[in-house]
Amino acid sequence: KSFFSRCNKKTKGIIMNRYVLFSIFFLTINVFSIVSQDKSSFTITNYGTIIVNTNNEKIEKNKDNVTDKLIIIKNDSNVFSKTEIVDAELNTYFGFEYKYLNTSNEAKKVIYRYYHPEIVNPITSISSIVDTIPCEINPGSNYIIGWKFNEEWELVKGEWIFQIIENNIIVLERKFLVR
């Protein structure tokens, strides 16, 4: 017999209620400690529009997003103009720079998630309101999550949200208004 089946009806309800409350409290504490622990290891160091030296730009084919490409930029000489309002113009970069801090020196797998108004790629006919790109990051390094308007069809106005996801938890987020 289980513990609850040995109790009378009145006691069973009280014990069950306490058990449920304790379980909810325990799970809540664990969830908050996980979120707090993960968020404290990620810090936004800069954000806004970005002036990038094109010599630091490398373009790769990438099927994980609507544009079909991934632009990788080095962090060494980028200049941020702090703003959350971005003009929809070709060759505009925007996003945020962040640092991942961890004493274990272990790399982490994260996902870059981009929410944006609907973008339709006229070449592939693929449309999207969210794009995700898996990444691996190392502690102590600075990284940039951002977007560059390469094509006219990418110039969509509205709210854009960039997120860093680790273990299904949003550890960093920044919103931009493209106008």
Task: Explain what the structure shows.
The protein is 18% helix and 46% strand. It contains 1 helix and 11 strands. Strand 10 (158-166) and strand 11 form a beta hairpin.
Q: Give helix and strand order, one letter per element, not per position.
A: HEEEEEEEEEEE
Backbone CA Rg: 22 Å
Mean pLDDT: 77
**How would you describe the shape?**
globular
What attributes characterize this protein structure?
179 residues; alpha+beta; five-stranded mixed β-sheet; four-stranded antiparallel β-sheet; 1 helix; globular; disordered N terminus
Record the SSE blueprint.
Blueprint lengths: L8 H32 L1 E10 L5 E5 L7 E5 L5 E3 L3 E2 L6 E8 L7 E13 L6 E11 L4 E7 L9 E9 L2 E10 L1
Parallel strand pairs: 5-11
Antiparallel strand pairs: 1-4, 1-6, 2-3, 6-9, 7-8, 7-10, 10-11
Question: How would you concisely characterize the structure shown here?
Answer:
The protein has 179 residues and is of the alpha+beta class. It has one helix and eleven strands. Strands 5-11-10-7-8 form a five-stranded mixed sheet. A four-stranded antiparallel sheet has the order 4-1-6-9. A two-stranded antiparallel sheet has the order 2-3.
